[in-house]
């Protein structure tokens, strides 16, 4: 039988240390491991380098002062195009960025997962991705075509945090919505991999939840699993629950002033996971 | 029809957007935004049934889905999660229509940020997929608010690659192809010798001078036509099927 890799939210946070590169799964304001993100936001950790198809995970951690740099192609709340806390952090110069195309991002994770230093691509040529990332190099094809391509470097992660719908205690993860995003790749690109799930079920019950293709994360890809019901709130986690648009608007309002953030933070960030879930049910 | 009366400006825009995809063949037409989706679906429902289109997320859908409706019926013919989208883009089987916060005369596009990279005056979307889209596939743009703030002599950041930069790359940019820019006022193409923007048509009720005044650089304005009106069949499709709530008119008021 599968080993028992169940951990707590605090166990996961203890793995994240100052200056680490942390990959966060999901996409925009969809299926983000928000219970883990909030726990990081109230921890003492600092100077993180975030790698994310960004949503409120990036915004909250920037606003909480946990972030040195964001590696990103976008940071969006989907129904609200621009992430307000990330925007404030950028415009005040509080966080550095690496500006990438969405596909370069995929190639960087894939290179890290495959343990190669880079993957070649046409993407980036001609755009300011090259100007804004002066460390980015090109590579010439060793074959007769001699074509010059961008050498997208591996995005090696220290820690990956992802959220799936179901999992088992061995760390198998199952998604039940229409898009797996890049969560498996995030895990493959990372040294330590932690997955929160809506519900842990017995291994023999996983296929009652969905077909075998939904088992996108196998246990080679994870070091720990933690059950966090409603743990992606307020981001979308269909079919279990839609995005909480009302809460997301309140979150957006909290970017309008220091007082608004302090109030939001006191109610929804500087509280335990149980208290948070009680507060959002109220 | 659910709405009567003469064609609205938004309906003219929808037709102009649809025309961008004429002759594309069996590729993924991927218009992003409200009127782009309306126009793209109009093309597929009329003269370009071979186009492959998504529901805006991970499904390929064959029926003309209405925009702005909560749970539309979908005739699903495929699965196209984000990761598969890169396979489509990098294999050259897509024509995307994106938005633009800034565009210059050669079609260099910015929606990343404006100002100092270390502390921008305005943080926008980020690079998104623009560098990869423009270097690999046909690209068009949609600008619902044609103004000198959008059409600028020089963009702050190049997210989408324009024709001058593509020319400088030579053969490496052989898949680069900007098709058109459709705005609330007009249609622009790049069918000039040096691939500078050319005013192709103005929408009914708009003059060439209106467009010139709203553009922050010189446009080529010889041979400007009037954008065509929707046919009766197109109007019925727009009003009864694709845009039953008038979402297009909310984006571009007449």
Description:
The complex is a heterodimer of chains A (282) and B (254). Chain A is α/β, with parallel strands linked by helices and 282 residues long. Chain A folds into 2 domains: 9-100 and 155-281, Glutaconate Coenzyme A-transferase; 118-153, no CATH class. In chain A, 31% of the residues lie in helices and 22% in strands. Chain A has helices spanning 9-15, 34-41, 56-63, 84-91, 102-114, 129-132, 183-188, 206-209, 245-253, 258-268, 273-281; strands spanning 21-24, 48-52, 67-72, 96-99, 118-121, 137-140, 148-153, 157-167, 173-174, 190-200, 224-227. In chain A, the strands form 2 sheets. In chain A, strands 1, 2, 3, 4, 8, 9, 10 and 11 form an 8-stranded mixed beta sheet that branches. A 3-stranded antiparallel beta sheet of chain A has the order 5-7-6. In chain A, helix 1 crosses helix 2, helix 2 packs parallel to helix 3 (56-63) and helix 3 (56-63) packs across helix 4. The termini of chain A are far apart. The model of chain A has no long low-confidence stretch (mean pLDDT 98). Chain B has 254 residues and is α/β, with parallel strands linked by helices. Chain B has one domain (9-247): 3-Layer(aba) Sandwich (Glutaconate Coenzyme A-transferase). Chain B is built from 8 helices and 13 strands. Chain B has helices at 9-20, 34-45, 82-90, 130-136, 163-169, 208-213, 232-242, 247-251, and strands at 28-31, 59-61, 76-79, 94-98, 102-103, 109-110, 113-114, 122-123, 138-143, 177-183, 186-189, 198-202, 225-226. In chain B, the strands form 4 sheets. Chain B has a 7-stranded mixed beta sheet, with helices on both faces. A two-stranded antiparallel sheet of chain B has the order 2-3. Chain B has a two-stranded antiparallel ribbon with strand order 5-6. Chain B is globular. Chain B starts with 8 loop residues before the first helix and ends with a helix. In chain B, 51% of the residues are buried. The model of chain B has no long low-confidence stretch (mean pLDDT 97). The A-B interface holds A 27, 72-76, 81-82, 86-87, 90-93, 96-97, 99-104, 106, 121-129, 131-132, 147-149, 178-182 and B 57-59, 79, 81-83, 86, 89-90, 112-113, 116-132, 134-136, 157-161, 165-166, 168-169, 171-173, 175-176.
